[in-house]
Amino acid sequence: MLRWQEFGQAWWAEARKKVKNAAVFLDPLACECLHWNGGAPSLLEAGASCIKELSTFEVVPKNIKKGVFISSTAWHGTNYNILESLIKKSNLEYCVIITSAHVSVHHLLLWGSRESNDSEVLQKIEGDVLGWMGNMNYTVEVFSFPLSTLHPTRDTVLIPSAKLARPFLTSDLGYLNEQLILFSKQVDAQTVRSINDLSNANLPLESQVQVRQLVHNLNQLIQHINGKDEIFTVGPFSRIIGTELEALNAAKTRRKTATNKVSVILVDRLLDLASATKFSSDNLYDRFIHTLDRLHEYSSDVAINMSGKPQGDLTTAPGCLAPQTDWNDGWDMMDHLFHENSQQATEWFTDVLKDSLEDSNDLKNLDDVIHQCSKDWDFIEKFTHLYQIGYGVSQIQSNDEAKRMDYLEGIRKSLVECLDDESPSPLIQVLQLLKTRKDMNLSLDDILVLLVHLYSLAGDRREDVLPAELEERFKSLVAEILVNDILSDELHDFVGVPVDEIRAHRAAQRIIEQLHCISEFRSHMKRYRTLCQRRNSAMPLECVSFFQQLVEDIFDPLFGDKNPDLEHKSGSLKDFIKTGFSLFVNVRKPKPVDNPTIILYVCGGIRPDEVKLIRDLFRQKSTTHKVLIASSHFLSAYDSLQYVFKKNLSS
């Protein structure tokens, strides 16, 4: 059986065969996937003449006759217009057009729900490109390669193009129903009353495209390991993904001959935003994401300041975490960053760096080791990846932002303790934080993240522990802050321009409405309604991860097939016969642990410390099961604000 971490590398190897003597253009998400699959050096080594962003601000060099264009999404709309502009202004005679989107995604965009054969789409793109080149005798090749994945560890996969394929809140129903009416062209068209009633057919076209692309990405990944999948879902959006994956024709064909049994568990991120909004953890990768800037806005990597200056400089390229060449050594280092506590991982990197130096007897700590390494260019050239990570680990230990994250984590824990019935509402503390935010070096964004955490934890106890009268005081204070403070870019976009009192009060009201929707997301759950737990009467209230509860349940022999919130998708005739037969005879329902391999996909992003939690739980519960932890991107606590600031699905 092929290893799933080879999936991305195998397809990038195919793409590299096409780049010799070519100018290569990639969109940002394709760049992120390339970054973890050999990087730009791998394209240059394969013969690429130059590498550029797929952008209207770029041009094809006049002396280049061959161009390779790689898009992480379908060739449609903006990126298709960019492609046309680049080709028309060039002297290209040979074009290779590559998309990570399945051909059926193009069908959906071009002809609605109508299916057609693959060649029809590819021929259309080929004809358009030949027309832009100005000579029908020139050469065009069009490929659909799944260049959509990256593998930060041996048991983790990210699909960056699926970042927008995320769960809906109740507040999205207005927009969804508006689009339904527009599409049906009937004023009295049937609308959806609950997000739990949503199906793929109810979604607007842009959401259907995102769903279809994700479903094909998952199918291609399962096909790579010759997997015969059984699908389980938790949450309304995951149910849509699971239903589409079960019904996919390519998946049905694959299941007829596949031999490796796989359970696919799809989970909605919105079931647990509490775990996503912790500010600090004992996981080095998580600390990297919370204390350093992202590298080129990649969700999966950070920019490590290698200049030795506090603010960096423009002449020194930033370091990063992704390995470039030796993948086995690279993944070994990733294992330490992800799966050991920060002290153990720091000691390991210190020891490895010391062992790599010729004279390290007098070096006592990581800072001393890094200082010594920085003097030796031969060492840096030989151990580039190790040196970058060690340099980064040294930075986040003394970083002011790391100390601020630890401070915010302390505030979070004190607020959670007030969620019990005997303590004053934590909103009282939040109001005080708003009033003293400048003295405490807190931003409004910091406090809003704390509120997302509280509302997600509170769940259906919201009205008791977060009372309406305190919410009114909160709205008044926030509206005042929005008018008078300097806002983050995200808040500024959310409030609108100019920021006046009317817009500020509307924004404050909208924030509370979104927080209510977040707290209500588990209201339909029977098993997973609460994320709060007190280990004993003497211990404070604490957050218990939804993923911890789910993994423990699926391995529980007394409960595994009786979980009311874990839905099994059964689409085959054999499954329907079993379902009907079970009405008369007690037939055991399938369980995820019936199969030796489990893929757990989180719709809406995952934290690095959650990757460690899930893997550790699987290893504790079973020595025979393998787990692949999958999602679209890595989250920081501040990424949860996308749900608070969301105006509608199109924003």
Q: Give the end-to-end Cα distance, rounded to a whole number of Å.
A: 42 Å
User: Looking at the structure, what is the overall shape?
Assistant: globular
Oligomeric state as shown: single chain
Task: Characterize the main sheet.
Answer: 7 strands, mixed
Q: Which superfamily, in CATH terms, is the homologous superfamily of the largest domain?
A: Sec1/Munc18 (SM) protein, domain 2
Task: Give the low-confidence spans.
Answer: none
Tally of alpha and pi helices:
27
Number of domains: 4
Strand neighbour order, sheet with most strands: 6-7-14-13-9-8-12
Mean pLDDT: 91
CATH topology of the largest domain: Rossmann fold
GO biological process, one term: intracellular protein transport
Family: Belongs to the STXBP/unc-18/SEC1 family.
InterPro entries: Sec1-like, Sec1-like_sf
Protein name: Sec1 family domain-containing protein 2
Structural features:
651 residues, 14 strands, Sec1 family domain-containing protein 2, Rossmann fold, alpha/beta, 27 helices, 7-stranded mixed β-sheet, Sec1-like_sf
Summarize the structure.
The chain is of the alpha/beta class. It is built from 27 helices and 14 strands.
Description of the structure:
The chain is of the alpha/beta class and 651 residues long. Helix content is 47%, strand content 11%.
List the helices and strands and how they pair.
Elements: H1 6-16, E1 23-26, H2 28-35, H3 39-45, E2 50-53, E3 66-71, H4 78-88, E4 94-99, H5 103-111, H6 118-133, E5 139-144, E6 150-153, E7 156-158, H7 173-184, H8 205-224, E8 227-234, H9 236-247, H10 249-257, E9 260-268, H11 284-291, H12 327-339, H13 342-356, H14 366-373, H15 377-382, H16 384-398, H17 400-417, H18 426-435, H19 444-458, H20 462-465, H21 468-484, H22 489-495, H23 501-520, E10 532-533, E11 542-543, H24 546-554, E12 567-569, H25 573-581, E13 597-603, H26 608-621, E14 626-631, H27 641-644
